[in-house]
Amino acid sequence: MLEIKNLVKSYGNGERVLKGLNFSTGDKKLTAIIGSSGAGKSTMLRCINRLVTADSGEILLDGVDLLKLRGKSLQNARRQIGMIFQGYNLVDRLTVMENVLSGRLGYVSLMQGVFRKFPAEDVDHAYQMLKRVGLSQYINKRCDELSGGERQRVGAARALMQNPRILLADEPTASLDPKTSELIMELIANLAEEMDLPVLINLHNVAQAKHYAARIVGLRDGVMVFDGKPDELTNEHLEHIYTAKAELKEQLGHKPRSKR
Amino acid sequence: MSSLTSGPLKELGKESYHWERFTAKQRFLRFIAYLTVAVLLYWTVSSIDIYWPWVWSAPIEIQDMISRMIPPNPGALPEIIPALIETINIATIGTVFAVLISLPVAYFGASNVSPNKVMLWIARVIIVSSRSIDTLIWALLFVAILGPGPMAGVFAVTFRAIGFLAKLIGESIEEMDWGPVEALQSSGASKAHIISYAIVPQVLPTFWAVTILRWDINIRESTVLGMVGAGGIGMLFQVAIDLFRWRDVSMVLFSIILVVLFGEIVTSIVRKKLI
Amino acid sequence: MKHENQAIPLEDHYIWKKPSFIRNPWLRYGLLLVSAVYLIYAFSTLSLDIQRVMRGIPRAMQIFSSAIPPNFAARGELIVTGFIESIQITLVATAAGVLLSIPFGFMAAKNISILPVYALGRAVIIISRSLHPIVLGVLFVKAVGFGAFAGVLTLIIYTVGFVGKLIAEAIEEIKYGQIEAIRSTGAGYFTILVYAVFPQIMPRLIGLSMYQLDINLRASAVIGLVGAGGIGNTLNSAFGRYDYGTASAILLVMIAIILVFEYVSGKLRRFTK
Ligand SMILES: Nc1ncnc2c1ncn2[C@@H]1O[C@H](COP(=O)(O)OP(=O)(O)OP(=O)(O)O)[C@@H](O)[C@H]1O
Ligand SMILES: [Mg+2]
């Protein structure tokens, strides 16, 4: 159960990127977050696993306020939250297996991690996971030898190795070609369903969002402006979500278009 | 032929086109640069403290010295060989120590991973002072502290190499891809795990490259440590010079060239195998 | 460590070990053993002795306490003239050395040279590179006497070793197409050099000179230790008199000059690119 209450976040220059966001999800289903570039989608996800620190508000994961955690308890909370990145964020010079196993680092001791001596059940689990995403033949390949789609499959396997309670994905398919993008979305959706996980996923592709998500959240300018089922999302809603700030439009010399 | 030049090409000769390699501003800047260099050189040559008659007689003096050096004296070899081995040992052990010390310095001196400003600045001061003081001056200092011998040489090599290694390794930490670090942070990994999985693999190629490079440099520098009493072949060189044993001098020079080439060959082989 | 929501069925056990960098275990452990034995041997020959280090600590303390605060006043004038001389030596030697490196660089470039000339060029470069400036310094002091001139000669040779090698490498990498284009206009050897080779290595050469200026400045401070002029002379006599206050003043100025110089030459190099 994830609950975000009144979340505020600003970066160095002071302008608020998230302006009192409220959001909650308890269901084991896929929620897509859409919004134009700069709306604060990435910031929202990164606040949840504390890659950035929010200014104020609460983020409750099963009743525990993540914003209050530090040190070891923060690490323990983070391993409950898996994340898939747009740029994969794999360690290129390590093997596929090491990258997948690195998802277990929150659970193993210092020595086990450093010397790659993971518990047998973790190794088994990693192997099954690689099999599931169709990469078991690449176990000892280095990640810089993989294609983009293969890398993202490793990224997904790594996130799920954490055995998370919630999965975050920040535009996981934005660096991929359309066909691979569909395959990866399909994979993430299926895995989440198999593992009974709630998923929060940032998407730019509205068609994909409508197709895969059970719920769509529209973010504009740090404020939630839509929250509903995919078939409730009308063109007027989209127009509203994707209309840039007035001043920005002026800067860009933007002429309003009737239909997107 | 005439059909080819009937078009606009025919007009070509009539219109003069002004072509210059550089724009006016570029030319002005170049002029300033040349002028600065010329003035500097003029000032230097006219004011440097050189006794010019010596300059004109220099070719003869140098020829004379070279003729006294030929042929090199192989009889000096029994002394030279152990000194050469000592030279290589000083370079190697100095490199090992420097690597061990430079790793934490590099980590604390890299602005993206350094735990706090104080550590960052301490590391930077260490790097700058280590790098700006030549090995030989470090050697003078350590001979004064520890007394003459190869130990002072090892310390000198170590202290000079720390800054070199820490600077280059630290820069490679600063330039690495931050994505994997975030990925591991968000999986709940501890700091040590993040270093071992995200930082070390990314920095490793640079680490090996600069370590090998430094070993090569250290061999060169170790050949002269003996001239201030810090061990290695340099002492034999100094003694031969002081006693005007020119044929021993040339033998020592020859073996220094050989040992430096040896270092270069070893490093190029290792580099090829590793990278 | 339970996987509570383990939806994926476990099949067979899978054993995984990180693949080693060196596949062959004999080779791997053999190399490890050889390195370990060599390091232990080398360590043991250097008479590294903790007790001497311990005894050195009070001496180091003494040196540092007399080095702090640095004493700029006592030999202020000598320090200034010493540094000026070092800078003069650096400038003259770099200018002359870079000019001299050009013919040697061309001689030592495999693709435009003939074999005997190539061998000579390479030999000169290898010898100049292998000999530390201080060794050259001693030799030149013996040959032409104490002072700045010996220092200039030393740094010229030192420059030829480094810049000559890099010029040769730059020439070996140039695009052959341009040479052929110029040659096909009927140009002779030197015209080709001027029109096809020079423009390609010129930017590198300017960058290199700047870099070499930096290196020579550092070296000029050291060659004075053996009497080849400059601040090194002053530093050496300060060490000789156990005048660590002056020595530390000199070192501080040296660090400052080197840092300023590094900064300026870095800026200039970026500018000329
Ligand atoms: N590390 C940072 N430092 C300063 N400002 C930042 C930082 N990260 C994001 N911002 C700013 O915060 C705002 C929201 O950024 P965010 O990355 O959350 O948008 P987004 O909705 O994910 O956009 P996109 O669709 O382009 O990924 C932007 O104006 C951005 O410039
Ligand atoms: Mg984003």
Would you spell out the secondary-structure blueprint of this structure?
The complex is a heterotrimer of chains A (about 260), B (about 280) and C (about 270).
Chain A: E1 2-10, E2 16-25, E3 30-34, H1 41-48, E4 56-61, E5 64-65, H2 71-78, E6 81-84, H3 96-101, H4 110-114, H5 120-132, H6 148-161, E7 166-170, H7 178-195, E8 199-202, H8 206-212, E9 215-220, E10 223-228, H9 235-242, H10 246-252
Parallel strand pairs in A: 3-8, 3-9, 6-7, 7-8
Antiparallel strand pairs in A: 1-2, 1-4, 4-5, 9-10
Helix pairs in contact in A: 5-6, 6-7
Chain B: H1 24-47, H2 52-69, H3 77-109, H4 117-132, H5 135-146, H6 150-175, H7 179-186, H8 191-225, H9 234-242, H10 246-274
Helix pairs in contact in B: 3-4, 3-6, 3-8, 3-10, 4-6, 5-6, 6-8, 7-8, 8-10, 9-10
Chain C: H1 25-45, H2 50-67, H3 76-107, H4 115-130, H5 133-144, H6 148-172, H7 176-183, H8 189-223, H9 231-240, H10 244-272
Helix pairs in contact in C: 2-10, 3-4, 3-6, 3-8, 3-9, 4-6, 5-6, 6-8, 7-8, 8-10, 9-10
The complex binds adenosine-5'-triphosphate and magnesium ion.
Mean residue pLDDT of chain C: 83
Query: Roughly how many Å is the radius of gyration of chain B?
Result: 28 Å
Helix/strand order of chain B, N-terminal first: HHHHHHHHHH
Bound molecules: adenosine-5'-triphosphate, magnesium ion
User: What is the string of SSEs of chain C from the N terminus onward?
Assistant: HHHHHHHHHH
Kindly state the percentage of residues in helix of chain C.
Answer: over 70%
- By oligomeric state, this entry counts as heterotrimer
Q: Looking at the structure, what is the overall shape of chain B?
A: extended
CATH class of the largest domain in chain B: Mainly Alpha
CATH architecture of the largest domain in chain B: Orthogonal Bundle
- The CATH superfamily name of the largest domain in chain B is MetI-like
Q: Give the uncertain stretches of chain C in residue-range form.
A: 1-10
Short overview:
The complex is a heterotrimer of chains A (260), B (275) and C (273). Chain B is built from ten helices and no strands.
